[in-house]
Amino acid sequence: MIYTVTLNPALDYFVSVESFKTSEVNRSKADHKAPGGKGINVSRVLKHMGQPSVALGFIGGFTGEYIKSTVQQEEIQTDFIQVEGDTRINVKIKSDVESELNGVSPNISSDNVRDLEKKFEKMVHGDTVILSGSVPNSLPPTVYQHWTSLLKKRGVEVFIDTSGQPLVEAIQAKPTFIKPNHHELSELVGDSIQTFEHAVPHVQSLIDSGIDYVLLTFAGDGALLATKEQILTANTPNGIVKNSIGAGDSTVAGFVSAQKEGMELADAFRFAIATGSATAFSTGLATRSKVESLLADIQITAYKQ
Ligand SMILES: Nc1ncnc2c1ncn2[C@@H]1O[C@H](COP(=O)(O)OP(=O)(O)OP(=O)(O)O)[C@@H](O)[C@H]1O
Ligand SMILES: O=P(O)(O)OC[C@@]1(O)O[C@H](CO)[C@@H](O)[C@@H]1O
């Protein structure tokens, strides 16, 4: 089974504003809500790709209820832990540029953590766990590292999509897969990564440390996938970007989905990039037909040192 873990879900509130101005009353011309948080997005895109998953994580209050009921209506299995306090609301403003205001997590107690860890104890070889998004302030930044070690000992594949200190800590436990964007890699290695050439030595040392897959994305400027055996690069297809929120989560879902379908590495990489771009080119999250329409526009090439 595939499990997604969202420690810090969110009700995403999207507003479109003609020309957003600070220090003024701005009125939106359109808005909509969606259940969010990185792992939840991964579960939703997996569902669109035809892959079942179980969404785990912490939810609370009316916002938590909204997330749970919406995700369940989409026929995604959930096994959330109920916490005190309300799940945050993240505001996504689309104007001349995209701006985001992400809220803080409600408090997560040690009992809440124990309840989640009990669920990990039932996971077995062949399962995949995707640990995605920010870590609430009430938890240590080492949680992903701790759970990666614990899950790997159980034979579970661990995919991590996070940033900052939780990513620094998590890579010590050698997860199966990480998906930094070039800004996150730059922060991780203390260097400003702008090109594939510049990224390769850093990506190579992550692979040498024992991570199986590093998928590095550069938004609309391509991506690079490294394993112990090979380094591949991809272009991103051209299109009109309608919403880049959740594009990275879609890339992760695309890769996992392709692997579960048994695709070869290059095809799985192409599928992952198509899924990320399908979300970027849509108002909601990627659909399977949109992904398939983009596959032919993505060329995968072996990287030459
Ligand atoms: N301008 C774009 N054109 C085409 N595809 C895009 C564009 N921006 C993002 N994507 C798609 O989304 C994927 C992830 O983008 P990005 O590198 O911005 O990751 P991210 O920062 O994790 O994403 P997110 O915006 O969800 O946080 C890219 O690999 C690509 O497939
Ligand atoms: O604050 P975090 O956990 O880093 O990111 C949360 C978030 O911005 O990520 C998703 C898009 O990737 C959104 O659904 C959600 O609001």
Automatic annotation (TrEMBL):
Biological process per Gene Ontology, one example term: carbohydrate catabolic process
E.C. no: 2.7.1.144
EC category name: transferase
Residue ranges annotated for the Carbohydrate kinase PfkB domain, each copy included: 17-287
Reactions accelerated catalytically: D-tagatofuranose 6-phosphate + ATP = D-tagatofuranose 1,6-bisphosphate + ADP + H(+); beta-D-fructose 1-phosphate + ATP = beta-D-fructose 1,6-bisphosphate + ADP + H(+)
Family designation: Belongs to the carbohydrate kinase pfkB family. Belongs to the carbohydrate kinase PfkB family. LacC subfamily.
Database matches in InterPro entries: 1-PFruKinase, Carboh/pur_kinase_PfkB_CS, PfkB_dom, Ribokinase-like, Tagatose/fructose_Pkinase
Organism: Alkalihalobacillus alcalophilus ATCC 27647 = CGMCC 1.3604
Full protein name: Tagatose-6-phosphate kinase
GO CC annotation terms, alphabetical: cytosol
CDD domains for this protein: FruK_PfkB_like
Recorded metabolic or biological pathway in which this protein acts: Carbohydrate metabolism; D-tagatose 6-phosphate degradation; D-glyceraldehyde 3-phosphate and glycerone phosphate from D-tagatose 6-phosphate: step 1/2
NCBIfam families hit by this protein: 1-PFK (TIGR03168), pfkB (TIGR03828)
GO molecular function: 1-phosphofructokinase activity; ATP binding; tagatose-6-phosphate kinase activity
Keywords attached to this entry: ATP-binding, Kinase, Lactose metabolism, Nucleotide-binding, Transferase
Record's function text: Catalyzes the ATP-dependent phosphorylation of fructose-l-phosphate to fructose-l,6-bisphosphate.
